[in-house]
């Protein structure tokens, strides 16, 4: 009498019907043998209680009827992705995935391939019967040249439908897999070799050494429309010409590569760097003010807006900052909108700014017409533009780049604009806040703080010297 | 502690304090900063970050990690959300918790990367195959990008269901000051259903397949009963609605614009109010009716009336509803909302 594997449930109670100790597999189907081989190895290696088994879609969907371990039933083709997910969060547990040839070779090939390439830490059993069995005998990627299936009624024409996909050979090109072998369960001799390979893959998984892959050629007499004995014989003869058996790789005795360590931090360390003691005040009497900063990318347009925003936040105002992003940013120009208010800010975008800072010609010409009546337009004085400025707007050409260069920091035009804005009284909060926010913005590079403060002061001086 | 942060970064701050265990995602503008933050922070917390090969994979990786009772997160935008629908249907079918952030961009197809709200139906009506619903939360500020991420994890675990944060490109890219949470959430007990590779959970099964039709029907009945129970989680903000003659309703960035319009209308002496759903699924229908019954109603959205349709469906007295919308990456204008409200008050719209 054949001994029952203790890796299987005593009774298959999840299975419907009466035969609670028989599998649902057809006579002569390889899945039943594979089931026994995997379950025996699981029991021998004593990993059942720790293992999580990820079943596919197809005839093996019902792995969870049989294996005595934790189970996940994956979507079609996704067992490798599901196994990747769980193996990442249960790094010490044996994870076993099982996929058929349509599941792994077609719809889920990239998921399996990428998992193999990452060396994701699970054992993957790939059952190749050269067709879609459960769905009704259609062509699989592994279907042999000339093979008749329900979707290749004239035989697989490799010119139109491609060649049988050799997954072991493809995976062999990858660096990460630890173990790759192709076996067959078509006869006793082959089953003994399959048993060894399956056991090896599970040993590798027990020791969490990495990705182990076993392709198992498995006859499907039902869809081959021959009796089981003939199916096994024919299967061996025809299949192994295209899918030669053998071990492709066994790195299980080599050292396991370990990922580089990352220094650990706490949640509060990671999210720190903010400020204590600032409360946002509801102040309906405060009139909302809208700022638009614009120029070339690299002129510090976005950081100018950020300094203004940070200074307003520290003054207890509601503030929003909205950048231009994506292709607009990459196209050379950048802009951002800052709104400062005494209550929650509505739309974060600005149609009609109270203050426009334009640091180059395209942004001057683009945004100047939008400045609100009674607003202020501050633009780089070296920009030559023949445009007509809107009426009722205070227009100030400001030599920001000249001031920045004269003070030794040619890139600090944005800081010069900031100084000018404070001197012109355009910022509805204290200069101290602005200087603090400016210094804070250079905290990654503190040696820039003093030179920028110098530019800031020079800009203020320019404004008081040129008061109109 | 207060910090001035980007909406997308606030999501990860929320996720960290929600106790997220793993992030699986594929880059896409305008959601990528969430992946950047996850890649930078999660390894430092001893948590998992993995850049998946596609969104189909990220959803299924979430399925795998969620099966172990872990807190999983992903973020994407339109095209990536479409690819995730397979996995989201399976998450709902297997009753697994997961949080997915959709930083909506304009569609259909490739569309563009500017803000839109065209994924409303996809998120609120299910999106994948089968009879299921997502929990859908709609932040309207950077603070809510953080806070609703925490709430999404709470609800996802409470109901064992995927939760979607339906944000948009404006909310993802903008910065505001937020209060940083103080305490990392507790780990919920999941031994009853999760599969963790131990003796205690060995007999649990994560699956969405039931071969017998009555069993599958019963499963549908059970999860739909759960959706009914979720109604108690409905949340909304009503702003100046009590004495209002005209109610403007919208969610997310549209609601912000509506708020500006309400303030501006009030300054002109028109009694306007804002109704802003914070949960889109469940939709706060009771709260909507409480403030909108008998009033003039304007719906504003950055989509083709998807939210408007749900408002109409849920109004008990079937009031007339006027839609003010923009698409393609444009935002509705305050001035247009004001003109519409003024016309309605004059009986002209």
Q: Name the CATH superfamily classification of the largest domain in chain A.
A: Thiamin diphosphate (ThDP)-binding fold, Pyr/PP domains
Any idea what the radius of gyration of chain A is? 35 Å
CATH superfamily of the largest domain in chain B: Thiamin diphosphate (ThDP)-binding fold, Pyr/PP domains
Residue fraction in strands of chain A: 15-25%
Which assembly state applies to the chains in this document? heterodimer
Strand elements of chain A, count:
15
Number of domains of chain B: 2
CA-to-CA gap between the ends of chain A? 107 Å
Provide mean pLDDT of chain A, rounded: 94
What's the CATH class label of the largest domain in chain A? Alpha Beta
Largest interface: chains, residues each? A-B, 71 and 77 residues
Category by helix and strand content of chain B: alpha/beta
Main pleated sheet of chain A: 7 strands, mixed
CATH C-level of the largest domain in chain B:
Alpha Beta
Strand % of chain B is: 15-25%
Q: What's the end-to-end separation of chain B, in Å?
A: 47 Å
Number of strands of chain B: 16
Low-confidence stretches of chain B: none
Mean pLDDT of chain B, rounded to whole units? 97
Q: Treating each run of at least 4 consecutive H or I residues as one helix, how many helices of chain B?
A: 12
What would you say the CATH architecture of the largest domain in chain B is?
A: 3-Layer(aba) Sandwich
């Amino acid at each position: 009498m054949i001994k029952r594997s203790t890796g299987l449930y005593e009774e298959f109670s999840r299975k419907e019907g009466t035969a609670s100790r028989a599998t649902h597999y057809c006579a002569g189907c390889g899945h039943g043998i594979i089931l026994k081989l995997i379950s025996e190895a699981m029991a021998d290696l004593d990993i059942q209680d720790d293992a999580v088994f990820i079943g596919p879609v197809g005839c093996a969907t019902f792995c969870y009827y049989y294996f005595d371990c934790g189970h996940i039933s994956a979507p079609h083709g996704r067992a490798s992705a599901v196994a990747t997910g769980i193996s990442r969060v249960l790094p010490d547990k044996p994870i076993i995935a099982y996929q058929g040839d349509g599941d792994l070779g077609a719809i889920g090939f990239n998921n399996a391939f990428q998992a193999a390439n990452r060396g994701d830490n699970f054992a993957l059993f790939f059952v190749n019967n050269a067709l879609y069995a459960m769905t009704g005998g259609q062509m699989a990627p592994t279907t042999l040249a000339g093979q008749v299936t329900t979707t290749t009624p004239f035989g697989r024409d490799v010119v139109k439908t491609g060649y049988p996909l050799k997954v072991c050979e493809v995976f062999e090109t990858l660096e990460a897999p630890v173990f790759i072998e192709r076996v067959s369960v078509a006869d006793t001799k082959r089953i003994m070799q399959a048993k060894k390979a399956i056991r090896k893959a599970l040993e590798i998984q027990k020791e969490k050494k990495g990705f182990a892959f076993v392709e198992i050629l498995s006859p499907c007499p039902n869809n081959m429309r021959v009796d089981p004995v003939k199916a096994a014989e024919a299967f061996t003869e025809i299949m192994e010409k295209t899918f030669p058996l053998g071990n492709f790789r066994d790195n299980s005795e080599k050292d396991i590569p370990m990922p580089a360590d990352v220094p650990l931090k706490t949640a509060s360390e990671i999210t720190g760097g903010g400020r204590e003691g600032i409360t946002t005040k509801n102040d309906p009497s405060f009139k909302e003010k809208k700022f638009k900063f614009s120029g070339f990318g690299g002129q510090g347009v976005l950081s100018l807006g950020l300094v203004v925003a940070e200074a307003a936040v520290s003054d207890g105002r509601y503030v929003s900052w909205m950048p231009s992003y994506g292709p607009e940013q990459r196209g050379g120009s950048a802009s951002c909108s800052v709104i400062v208010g005494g209550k929650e800010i509505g739309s974060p975008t600005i149609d009609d700014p109270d203050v426009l800072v334009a640091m180059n010609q395209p942004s001057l010409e683009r945004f100047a017409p939008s400045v609100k009546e009674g607003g202020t337009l501050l633009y780089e004085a070296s920009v030559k533009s023949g445009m007509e400025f809107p009426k009722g707007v205070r227009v100030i050409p400001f030599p920001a780049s000249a001031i920045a260069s004269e003070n030794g920091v040619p890139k600090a035009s944005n800081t010069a604009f900031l100084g000018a804005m404070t001197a012109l009284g355009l910022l509805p909060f204290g200069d101290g806040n602005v200087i603090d926010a400016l210094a804070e913005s250079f905290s990654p590079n503190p040696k820039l703080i003093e030179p920028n403060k110098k530019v800031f002061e020079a800009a203020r001086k320019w404004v008081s010297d040129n008061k109109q | 502690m207060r910090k001035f942060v980007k909406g997308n970064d606030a999501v990860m701050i929320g996720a960290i304090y929600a106790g997220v265990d793993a992030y699986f995602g594929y880059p896409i503008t305008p959601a990528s900063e969430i992946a950047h933050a996850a890649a930078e922070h999660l390894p430092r917390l001893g948590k998992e970050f993995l850049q998946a090969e596609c969104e189909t994979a990220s959803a299924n990786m979430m399925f795998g990690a969620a099966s172990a009772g872990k807190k999983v997160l992903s973020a994407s935008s339109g095209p990536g959300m479409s690819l995730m629908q397979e996995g989201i249907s399976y998450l709902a079918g297997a009753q697994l918790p997961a949080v997915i952030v959709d930083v909506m961009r304009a569609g259909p197809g490739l569309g563009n990367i500017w803000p839109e709200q065209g994924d409303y139906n996809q998120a609120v009506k299910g999106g994948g195959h089968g009879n299921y619903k997502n929990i859908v939360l709609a932040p309207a500020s950077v603070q809510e990008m953080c806070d609703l991420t925490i709430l999404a994890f709470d609800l996802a675990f409470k109901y064992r269901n995927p939760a979607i944060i339906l944000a948009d490109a404006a909310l993802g890219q903008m910065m505001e000051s937020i209060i940083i949470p103080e305490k990392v959430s507790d780990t919920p007990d999941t031994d009853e259903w999760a599969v963790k590779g131990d003796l205690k959970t060995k007999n649990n099964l994560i699956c969405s397949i039931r071969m017998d039709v009555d069993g599958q029907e019963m499963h549908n009945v059970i999860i739909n009963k759960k959706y009914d129970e979720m109604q108690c989680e409905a949340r909304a903000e009503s702003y100046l609605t009590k004495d209002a003659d005209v109610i403007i309703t919208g969610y997310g960035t549209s609601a912000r614009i509506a708020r500006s319009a309400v303030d501006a209308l009030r300054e002109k002496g028109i009694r306007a109010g804002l109704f802003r759903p914070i949960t889109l699924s469940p939709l706060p229908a009771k709260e909507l009716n409480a403030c909108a019954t008998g009033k003039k109603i304007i719906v504003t959205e950055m989509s083709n009336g998807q939210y408007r349709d749900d408002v109409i469906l849920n109004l008990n007295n079937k009031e007339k509803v006027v839609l003010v919308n923009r698409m393609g990456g444009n935002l509705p204008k305050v001035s247009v909302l004001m003109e519409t409200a003024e016309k309605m008050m004059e009986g002209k719209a």
